[in-house]
């Protein structure tokens, strides 16, 4: 399983990129709004920082409701950073989103269909040609459904039917989610910086390092 970082914060992206674990970045209007910057400017800055990744997701504006409006927005977004090929158009799971996914994927533009909460939605997105599908597991857990089970079912379905779309486990909230979606067959987990730091922590690692340090002095 690969890691994307789920943020529009440049400092966090720069820190995570240095660790050599990043294969991509996902953003959404809420994450960019937190930064108080212009959407297109921030996507360009991100694309310039993470030069060696496969994908930087840029979501079409939520007021683009028809396929035509989404495609128009996408055509502006793919010009960012001189037509950077890693720019991936993030589209909502809706009929218009599927139509736009179809159109853009036929043009060779990467797409990420977001806000996936059922296996059927993932199947439709994959059949429309999505490069990535993003099930939101934490938000399912929030309403007492099983987010990891959804990822597991989508992975099984894609394998049975030889579907190429990659599963991005999104709305990943804690380390156990990461382990479980990796074992469930997610291709990618997109996670905030705070979670990356939690993944490396273990009290026995800290204790071991302290012991080695004190013994070294002896
Ligand atoms: O990757 C999707 C993410 O931004 C949503 O996460 O925690 O708001 O459900 P959350």
CATH class: Alpha Beta
- Assign an overall shape: globular
Quote the beta fraction: 15-25%
- Oligomeric assembly: single chain
Order of helices and strands: EHEHHEHHEHEHEHHEHEHH
* Classification by helices and strands: alpha/beta
- CATH third-tier fold name: TIM Barrel
| Overall number of structural domains | 1
Low-confidence stretches: none
Please identify, by name, the CATH architecture. Answer: Alpha-Beta Barrel
- Compute the separation of the termini in Å: 42 Å
Query: Can you count the beta strands?
Result: 8
Instruction: Report the CATH superfamily.
Output: Aldolase class I
Number of helices: 12
- Small molecules held by this entry: SN-glycerol-3-phosphate
Radius of gyration: 18 Å
Describe this structure in words.
This protein is an alpha/beta fold and 218 residues long. The chain has one domain (2-217): TIM Barrel. The chain has helices spanning 10-18, 29-35, 39-49, 67-77, 80-83, 95-106, 119-127, 137-142, 147-160, 175-184, 193-199, 203-217; strands spanning 2-6, 22-26, 55-59, 87-92, 111-116, 132-135, 166-169, 188-191. Strands 1-2-3-4-5-6-7-8 form an 8-stranded parallel β-barrel, surrounded by 8 helices. It binds SN-glycerol-3-phosphate. SN-glycerol-3-phosphate is lined by residues 6, 26, 28, 136, 138-139, 170-171, 173, 190.
